[in-house]
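User: I need a structural model of Nuclear transport factor 2 family protein from Streptomyces boncukensis for a docking pre-check later this week. Nothing fancy, just the predicted structure tokens so I can convert them on my end. Input:
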Amino acid sequence: MTATTLEERILRLEDIEAIRDLTARYADAINKGWNGRTVDADAIPDIFAADARWEGFDGEVTRGADAIAAVLPKATSVVQLSMHTFLNPVITVDGDTATGDWLMWVGSVLADNPRSVYMSADMTYTRTDQGWRIQTVLIGFGTMVRGSDGGTA
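Assistant: Understood. Predicted structure tokens for Nuclear transport factor 2 family protein:
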């Protein structure tokens, strides 16, 4: 491990905290279904880099913050409730880029049937003039707790 100055160590901690906050704001923007809450697609440009890339475990890829924001309402239209939680991050900062390997828990209700899915969410981040932004998201399928109808999340 190379010796770093106190300033460098503080900057690293501030960067990691900003990335945690950014990821929490992403989860908040895509949560819906209680207290009149809807997906906040308008928040996406402040969370994702303009040229961001989002890839689901099914291989579907969406490119660009505007495209990600545009696809959210349709992609979540069948979801009555969703709560996203990002856990156990391993965040590595390297200058103006960073990686974050997360475990993601999603509790949801579809067709009046509650279910939970546990997945990986591997993200890259980039520092912009406006602060940190998500550059890429790669969702990996993990395990699912099925609802009472045996359906999948």
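Before docking, keep this in mind: Helices lie at 6-30, 65-75.
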